[in-house]
């Protein structure tokens, strides 16, 4: 019977050495990595690992969730265990556990660790939900984002002072979100992009016609960005952590571009009316 192969990822050399000794004495084959880039290199290499045992918090780029996401891409059947030095996990624990199989608190009982690995290997769970990038989550949660935006706007006295039907107030959002997703997938250079957004431009013109001020237009986009990021936060269990930072930065830039085009359209209407 072949050995169970374990990839241990931890920036603490003593932890790596200790785990290696204990795991090898228990019959496991062990490979170690001192940081996220080294771990990703092992995961993408020619060897397959049955178990990932990774520290959650490590210095440098990425963390344990980045490693877990990569392992799930390459080997969805692998058991993934995260180590954390924080005994009290916050609400984030639920989202983390949607990514990994279990969170173990440092310092851990090493005999218990061996038992947990054997138990997880013997009772492999159903495959985790497929990971998504930010654009996929935006498409899937468009209605949630719009509802969240609408509920927030309803609490803004300045915006609600302008009389509109719901379809007039929210009608621009489906098209705007579709264009954001399309432009993110095209990965155009977002800051200063010359590609026009029809929905953003139309939004700026229509809000001028309703009597909005420029500040009110900006407020709507502020609420849109908040609604998008809050919705993403509620879907952390589905996020591909290996690319999430790049996606979120691109998303923030794209929202800024859309706002700029709406303001430019609004300003043209002001000039024409002068």
What is the topological layout?
Elements: E1 5-9, H1 13-25, E2 29-33, H2 36-43, E3 51-55, H3 64-74, E4 79-84, H4 92-99, E5 102-105, H5 110-122, H6 134-140, H7 142-153, H8 157-160, H9 166-170, H10 173-186, H11 198-209, H12 214-233, H13 244-273
Parallel strand pairs: 1-2, 1-3, 3-4, 4-5
Helix pairs in contact: 2-3, 6-10, 7-12, 10-13, 11-13, 12-13
Average pLDDT taken over every residue: 84
Which percent range describes the beta-strand content? Answer: 5-15%
Number of helices: 13
CATH class of the largest domain: Mainly Alpha
Choose one word for the global shape: elongated
Q: Report helical residue fraction.
A: 55-70%
Q: How many strands appear in the DSSP assignment?
A: 5
Taking all Cα atoms into account, the compactness measure Rg is 24 Å
CATH topology of the largest domain: Globin-like
Q: What number of domains?
A: 2
Structural class: alpha/beta
- Compute the separation of the termini in Å: 83 Å
Low-confidence stretches are: 189-193
Largest sheet: 5 strands, parallel
User: N-to-C SSE series?
Assistant: EHEHEHEHEHHHHHHHHH
Question: What's the CATH architecture of the largest domain?
Answer: Orthogonal Bundle
Write out the strand line-up for the largest beta sheet, numbering strands in chain order. 2-1-3-4-5
């Amino acid at each position: 019977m072949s050995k169970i192969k374990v990839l241990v990822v931890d920036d603490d050399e003593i932890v790596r050495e200790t785990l290696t000794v204990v795991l090898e004495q228990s019959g496991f084959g062990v490979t170690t990595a001192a940081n996220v880039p080294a771990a990703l290199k092992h995961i993408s290499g020619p060897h397959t690992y049955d178990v990932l045992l990774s520290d959650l918090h490590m210095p440098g780029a990425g963390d344990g969730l980045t490693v877990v996401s990569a392992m799930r891409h390459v080997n969805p059947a692998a058991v993934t265990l995260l180590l954390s030095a924080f005994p009290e996990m916050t609400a984030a624990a639920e989202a983390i556990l949607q990514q990994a199989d279990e969170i173990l608190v440092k310092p851990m009982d090493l005999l218990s660790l061996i038992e947990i690995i054997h138990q997880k290997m013997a009772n492999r769970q159903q495959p985790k939900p497929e990971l998504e990038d930010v654009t996929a989550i935006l498409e899937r949660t468009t209605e949630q984002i719009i509802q969240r935006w609408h509920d927030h706007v309803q609490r803004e006295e300045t915006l609600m002072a302008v009389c509109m039907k719901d379809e007039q107030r929210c009608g621009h959002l489906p098209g705007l979100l579709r264009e954001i997703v399309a432009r993110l997938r095209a990965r155009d250079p977002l800051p200063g992009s010359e590609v026009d957004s029809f929905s953003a431009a139309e939004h700026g013109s229509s809000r001028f016609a309703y009597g909005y001020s420029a500040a009110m237009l900006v407020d709507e986009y502020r609420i849109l960005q908040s609604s998008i990021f809050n919705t993403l936060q509620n879907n952390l269990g589905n996020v591909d952590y290996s690319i999430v930072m790049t996606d979120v930065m691109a998303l923030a830039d794209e929202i800024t571009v859309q706002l700029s085009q709406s303001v430019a359209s609004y300003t043209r209407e002001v000039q024409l009316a002068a």
